[in-house]
Design a protein that fits this description.
globular, binds manganese (II) ion, 254 residues
Length: 254
């Protein structure tokens, strides 16, 4: 359970960076963020899909992955505590990655308390229950037996499999209705009801927004994090209020 003391704020929340060697602008934005705004924070919460893909912790030594891990560890060494929840893309990032990057793993969903404020954190893909084919796939790849069998394969075979999966997924996404790939409201409300926490923060859908929900007479809020392109984008919480930072906010205020 993350730090529940006020010393955990300012806290920053990011997700869906999809870092990869062939996305140098996102990588540069992330390295700038880790060396800049993140140093002013006491906590950094990464809510999944930090990487475009993660083939297994035995790939931590690949130069690109090592560069990201070293930058995270450098931030951690300055006193910012880093929390990481896997997304669907980096589902296989585990203890080996956590050690290399100097961060702490969080389960999905996680309940945190920052000062007086209670927050539910999730990557968000578990809430997309209208996409039955995706949920069947999700159940399969989250099965420990499936993961053990997959990780027993040689690293190049795993990378080839992931590459073929990414192509299939891109093709499938083009054919699916946009509404099917968004969160299901009943699933969101069930999570907010079950936890009785007033705020849910998630990513995955790449549809940054603030949604209001009324659950059992309580006002709840769902904050959807933005995905990254060529600039950093993050949500900040100072113990009292949330503030969005990033290019999409700047545009919407014009
Ligand atoms: Mn995702």
């Amino acid at each position: 359970m993350p730090d529940t003391t006020p010393e955990a704020v300012p806290a920053l929340f990011i997700s869906d960076l999809h870092l990869a060697e062939d996305r140098p602008l996102a990588t540069a934005a992330f390295l700038g963020f880790l060396g800049g705004p993140a140093r002013e924070a006491r906590s950094l919460f990464i809510l999944g899909d930090l990487f475009e893909y993660w083939a297994g912790d035995d790939d931590t030594d690949a130069p690109f992955n090592l560069q990201i891990c070293n930058a995270l560890r450098a931030l951690s060494a300055t006193g910012t505590t880093i929390w990481f929840m896997t997304g669907n893309r980096d589902l296989l990032a585990g203890e080996g990655f956590a050690q290399a990057a100097g961060l702490n793993l969080l389960p999905d969903p996680s309940l945190i308390q920052l000062g007086e404020h209670r927050i539910v954190l999730s990557h968000g893909d578990a809430l997309c229950t209208d996409d039955l084919a995706y949920q069947a796939y999700r159940n399969q790849v989250r099965d420990p037996a499936w993961q053990a069998a997959f990780l027993a394969q040689a690293l190049p075979s795993r990378k080839a499999f992931i590459e073929s999966l990414r192509k299939q997924s891109e093709a499938a996404k083009r054919e699916k209705a946009m509404t099917i790939m968004d969160v299901n409201h009943t699933a969101v409300e069930a999570l907010l009801r079950e936890t009785a926490y007033p705020t849910l923060i998630h990513g995955h859908t790449h549809r940054p927004a603030i949604h209001q929900h009324r659950i059992d007479g309580r006002n709840c809020e769902r904050r959807v994090l933005a995905d990254w392109h060529d600039q950093a984008t993050w949500l900040a919480f100072d113990g009292q209020a949330f503030t969005d930072h990033g290019p999409s906010r700047a545009r919407s205020s014009l």
